[in-house]
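Inverse folding, one chain.
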């Protein structure tokens, strides 16, 4: 699909705040609400916009610690990736599961109320999962959210 400058501006506006109405975006870009809505619909139909995401503030909800875990499976032949993924996604503190290429097989984003709560999650839930071998933890100190690439 070819994008013109207006399509890209709409994508930028939605990436900042996906709850904006077509009318508000149109006002900012000098377009009518129906014209903006048609462009948004075209982007949805093309599969460029696949949904709207709600971001929860984990810290405001009492989860003060975020840890990224690198997980290497010990027995890839005996435990299927699907078994590990099914088990790990059932843990509520695990926010993201990424199957990656490199030193580790998976990268997990885990939230916890504090470090002792994280230790409990690690020992009782994650380390007991099928096939878990080496684990490396990196505690998040700060995070800067970027919009990501949008072609110009």
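Residues assigned per position:
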């Amino acid at each position: 699909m070819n994008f013109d400058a207006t399509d890209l501006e709409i994508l930028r506006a939605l990436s900042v705040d996906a709850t904006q109405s077509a009318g508000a975006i149109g006002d900012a870009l000098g377009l009518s609400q129906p014209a903006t809505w048609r462009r948004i619909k075209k982007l949805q139909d093309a599969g460029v916009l696949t949904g709207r995401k709600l971001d929860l503030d984990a810290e405001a909800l009492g989860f003060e610690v975020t840890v990224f875990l690198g997980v290497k499976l010990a027995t890839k032949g005996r435990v299927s990736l699907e078994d590990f993924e099914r088990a790990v996604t059932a843990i509520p503190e695990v926010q993201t599961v990424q199957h990656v290429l490199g030193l580790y097989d998976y990268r997990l984003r885990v939230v916890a109320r504090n470090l002792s709560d994280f230790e409990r999650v690690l020992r009782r839930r994650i380390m007991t999962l099928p096939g878990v071998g080496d684990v490396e933890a990196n505690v998040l100190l700060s995070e800067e959210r970027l919009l990501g690439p949008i072609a110009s």
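The domain at 5-45 is CATH 1.10.10.10 (Arc Repressor Mutant, subunit A). The chain has two domains: 5-45, 65-139.
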